Amino acid sequence: MSSRKKFFRSFLGENPKVGKSVLPQPSSSTGTNTPYQVNQSKNITRRTNTGITPYVGAFGKPELLHLLRRSLFGVKMADISAFTGNTLEQTVDALLTVSSTLPNPPLNDYGNTISDPNVLYGQTWINAPYDPLLNILREKSLKSWFWNLMANQSSNLQAKMVLFWHNHFAIQFVDVPMASASYLYSKLLFTHALGNVKTLTRAITIDPAMLFYLNGRLNTKRAPDENYARELQELFSIGKGTHSLYTEDDVKAMAKVLTGWSINILTNPVSTSFIASNHDTTDKQFSSFYGNTIIKGQTGIDAGNTELDDLLSMIFKTDESAAFLCRKLYTYFVYYEIDDTVEAKVIQPLAKVFRDSGYDIKTVLKTLLMSEHFFDNWNRACVIKDPITQQGGLCRQMELAFPVTTDYAQMYRMFQMGVNYGALTQMVIGDPPNVSGWPAWYQKPMFYRSWINNDTLPKRNLFSDNLLVTGQMVGTAKIYIDPWIVTKKFSAPGTADTLIADATEFLLPLALSKKQIESLKEILLPGGIPDYNWSDEYLSATNVSDPNHTNSLNTATKKLRSLYKSIMNLAEFQLS
Amino acid sequence: MKRRSFVKKAAAVGAVLPLSLNGMGLKTFEDSPLLRALSRRGSSDGKVLVIINLSGGNDGLNTLIPIDQYSNLSKARSNILLPEEKVLAMNGTTKTGLHTKLTGLKDLYNNGLVNVIQSVGYPNPSFSHFQATDNWMSGSETSESWTTGWMGRYLDARFPGFPSGYPSTAMPDPLAIQIGNLVNLTFMGSQLNMAMAITDPNSFYNLITDTIDKTPDTPAGHELAFLRMVAQQSNQYATVVKAAAAKGKNMSTKYPTGGTGRKFQLADSLKIVAKLISGGLKTPVYMVSMGGFDTHSLQVDNNDHSEGSHASLMQQLSEGISAFQDDIKLLGLQDRIVGMTFSEFGRRVMSNGSVGTDHGAAAPMFVFGSAVQSGIIGANPTIASTVNVKDNVPMQYDFRQIYASVLKDWFELSNADVKIAMGGKDFNTLPIFKANQSSIDDYVDLVSQISLNRIYPNPAVNETNIEYSTEAGNIRISIYDALGHLITVPKEGWHSHGIYTLNVDLKGYPRGNYYIQMSQGEKRITASFLIQ
Description:
The structure holds two protein chains of two kinds.
Chain A: H1 3-11, H2 61-71, H3 77-83, H4 88-95, H5 135-151, H6 158-168, H7 179-192, H8 197-205, H9 208-213, H10 227-237, H11 248-257, E1 261-264, E2 271-274, E3 284-285, E4 294-295, H12 303-317, H13 319-333, H14 340-356, H15 361-369, H16 372-375, H17 387-397, H18 408-424, H19 456-470, E5 472-474, E6 477-479, H20 484-487, H21 496-507, H22 514-524, H23 532-541, H24 549-569
Antiparallel strand pairs in A: 1-2, 3-4, 5-6
Helix pairs in contact in A: 5-7, 5-17, 5-18, 6-7, 7-8, 10-11, 13-14, 13-15, 14-15, 19-24, 21-22, 21-24, 22-24, 23-24
Chain B: H1 3-13, H2 33-39, E1 48-54, E2 64-66, H3 70-76, E3 88-90, E4 93-98, H4 103-110, E5 114-121, H5 129-138, H6 150-158, E6 176-179, E7 195-198, H7 201-209, H8 219-234, H9 238-247, H10 265-278, E8 285-290, H11 309-330, E9 337-342, E10 363-368, E11 375-377, E12 397-398, H12 399-410, H13 415-421, H14 441-444, E13 450-461, E14 463-470, E15 473-481, E16 486-495, E17 498-505, E18 512-520, E19 523-531
Parallel strand pairs in B: 1-8, 1-9, 5-11, 5-12, 6-7, 6-8
Antiparallel strand pairs in B: 2-4, 3-4, 5-10, 9-10, 13-14, 14-17, 15-16, 15-18, 18-19
Helix pairs in contact in B: 4-11, 6-13, 9-10, 10-11
């Protein structure tokens, strides 16, 4: 939590929602490491003037890769071949097309060791009664499930947008008493990821997990709790930009609008309820920022719904709400630096498109992802991957097998591996550090750079090192990426130069220097030996009837593992 | 006989030894408590091994030249052979010399600082760069594919549990540092690679000066610069390496100057190693590399065989080693450091039509430093009078014997620990180091003790006779094909002093050159013959 927010909250005597410290602190055990000091931000001397006009330049492989890298957690070879030959618009339309079928729910992956009286091993627990002893296992199962849906996503924007909304409407599963409520919240993100922001905000406002997390359930006419009302504006819809001029009285009035919502914990799963007797039925007056709107006090069982609708209409009528959301989308998909030019050329016109569409997420994304600004060279390769994109993405790119099996514990341990590395690199899905989400997407001046320090960067490398070279323990099994899967999909993997060109184009968003390429080639062909040595090795390794096949396969496999490990250890691999 | 080193050890502890011990093989006294006490040292702390990787397969016959084979060599490789008068003489022998450009190495040899091991290889050698490199780095054989390196296993045992608990007070520094190849099986332990890798000398200087390679003035360039800076700083050993670099120095003026890049890579890398050791880094193993040894074509100048690409490599090697040795002497570190060269294979006896040489088998290794027994271990390879394109230098010594010697006699491991580091196999040590139980004198001139006197008929059809003589001992006669594959062992067992003749049935063997190797313990000599 930023110091500003801390100050604000302590000033108001609130109990801040500070995430439990699940994140490891940078190791100081050796006493020799000096924490990285942020003083590297030299001024960029040039900016770009491009805006949201549709991009009309060539839509070749570099453009396709740029679009896919920003839209997916790791681009697969199959994604590239599937989209190659399509126009930009066809590609963006395809990325915006999402199955209406929701993912299968999380399963009981713990029943082989701890029995759940209500849920069989391998069945879902989402509708089971709350169980205080088993809840932590269900929550773990939920996070594993969530990570898997990111890393093993379909080839569209749904997963990336689910993470966007999870960061935007942040809750911490660890602070929600029931895993089933956290599941409902997650499901809601999948349902609305590419829907309508107003609808999504409405659903989130009265989502049981959110009512737990930001105390909406405690907000009654006798004891108003302003927590949600404040964050609804500050974090979810209006923000704290220069044009955000809502007042403290607006917070209070909004809290009153939202009184009466509660959670029925007797249903399975828990559900939202509205207790009319807790609802403040007076009229609510808002400031000039909201056009001096008065929300008429309602009574009865529909009072909460009616006033909530009025409230959201009022919020989304402001110019700032669309601009605020566009800035967050921009930070997520393009870059974090929003100067006056970007504000004028991109944010404001995009916000207008967004408002005019009635807050249709597909429309705003389509405009952004087809814009000349998005494809501007200036804006390529400048996003530092979040841990899920780095780790889940590399699993997806390298096609690490996640076997679907009736050994549910092991199946989920594979997903858990991702959650655990996320924790080591400061991103646990389901547990952002606080209600503001992850600092990478809001905290000046570091933004994305806050993912990277001298503790997390080596651990990012450890993930790829383990999966490629050393082997990653998952339960009692040692898991490896099979480096041949993608290698065989490249154009001419038996030619060292082509293999390196294909692999680096596939894995890195930036072209490498001649020196870097030479150093990668040194792995395949040490000491400057001629290229045919690799070709011979490759041919023998891929030909089972070659008399030297077994030896060549071993050697070539080692080399491929080293090659991919070295590419993934490059700083460039952290960029998207 | 072990007089020299025995006396040296005795002197080191100030013991006065009865002269009656003089003249008797030290091995006899292996079990004496006195000698055990004498040979036991405190620990190997402070000792450093510098491994020099000659990547690509060095032409051993054009490095250490068997002068007594010149007439046959001139038939086998006339288009590349050094003029005999340009071979550098080595003290104490007229049979063996060094390449013209190895002047620095020759001086070190003549000053008693170099041990040369002839014809080092392994059974059934691989001719693939990759498999051979894997074998040399892991310590495995062609039929094996090991995932750990010989130094990785050694460091695993010496620093248990690494990386958990490291850096520690006792070992605050990298266990190993490699400058060059990004990935190196040598240091692969059971859990992870134990070496801190420095891509090249330039990246080392980037590290110690906190600079990074320039990135473009774009958002991507800025994020990249940030990532590179953190990457450089996040190496857990960056601080100690920087401190050692700041504290350390170089004193030699012999390092070649005037450029960077591949030609200067070895000297520049060794210069860094000397600086880090003098700066107090406790790292016990360094590995530096130079490439370019895969000399399939134009390895010499047509007009002057003492010039050309291989000569240039010899010069870089010689200049690098002699500057380094000069530096560590001036720095007062020479008793703590030894260096060792290796290459994944030697090259074919016969040169090819492109004024080059193709992948071969055994080749010499050099171990240098004040701790070595100066001299040449083993005999010159025998070059047949008519060579076939497939003919190779057969091995006299297994490279793992050199590794075992380093571990036992330099790092002072027990036999059991050496065996672990060697992947569970036993290898006899050689008298490379002064600490070895044997004297190099026993290995220098084997002919007086064992001898392959005659092979007749030669060329042979269906059968041949081998006449050999020996001192009393266990003798083994082996026959290898031209590729170095062991074909048969026609004789093995105890012999009393005398001259013997062995008839060998050769029916069914393909035509070509073959080698007979006679061995008694570590003493080995070879001779070639032809089957028609």
